[in-house]
């Protein structure tokens, strides 16, 4: 095995795999270090609900054979109402998807070392020059990229990671069969991805049903254990208790059974990113973090961040005399804020306001969504202030005052 490469990537998730694909396609010598053994990959890291959209599939050349089910609509539910929007999507078999990224990048020349647990950076004269893994093994590169997610062993050592405990979201999901997909009184979930806002099921978060064909679906929930969660949470309830409660009380699951071996747990941070790069170094994917704060979509965002990092690396490496200094890699952060998450801050504020609302307001939100036109909703989803204002009611004033005082640090007179 070589010990020196153009780029060393830690982590073979969507961000690391896509970054390796792009760099290998450009002809660079790339090695990816992945903690899991190859014969098990990705058993431990098979943690994503893997709902995505055709734009991601087309942009990154993802084949149909990693798709469990193509969907036609997105459904939002509240405790007593729902809203349906026609929106093509795809529910991926996440393990197959991750293996595709590995094999495709390998075909283009990328090297993978499985069973390689990264422990930290190798430093010379204050700059990162390589990576230590499995204790005493070493590999060197002109540029190092951390795509390990929240563990972030390299980014934390370099002082780049700004992941905060109070912004840590946790999730759990089962794959079920025997679900009543078109239950009277509920929306028809055939070929649909459904997100439910209901504090009795996911206090301070949301739950989901993603149809995967016939009477099967991915079913789960997530939340951040912060003030929004604690306001509505039941004493001593764990995330497993909430999912069990939903399965026991929702009539759609009366005859449902878990599919053996199909239980997933995951986590991500919902917050603004801090610093994302340093001399010879970039952090991508959920190391940053990158997940969309409003609806939790992470695959497309992670893939985009990997692509932006590859573009930044290429901008230095293709010129033999251009050092990959922090100044020259600054283009990565510029591209991230422009292409990956151009409205991250406004969407984060929308998320905090959304989870401050109670169940009755969620029911009203469904009515509001059903009366508004698609253009207004699209603008609101992108953080347009005028469009968001059209979703507000006079009765929201106390909630807005609480939100402003808590999140915006405004001293309001009411």
TrEMBL record:
Pfam families named among the record's database cross-references: FAD_binding_3
A Gene Ontology molecular function term of the record: FAD binding
Domain FAD-binding: start-end pairs: 5-305
Family annotation (InterPro entries): Dggglyphlred_Halo, FAD-bd, FAD/NAD-bd_sf, Geranylgeranyl_reductase
Protein name: FAD-dependent oxidoreductase
Species whose genome carries this gene: Natronobacterium lacisalsi AJ5
Taxonomic lineage: Archaea, Methanobacteriati, Methanobacteriota, Stenosarchaea group, Halobacteria
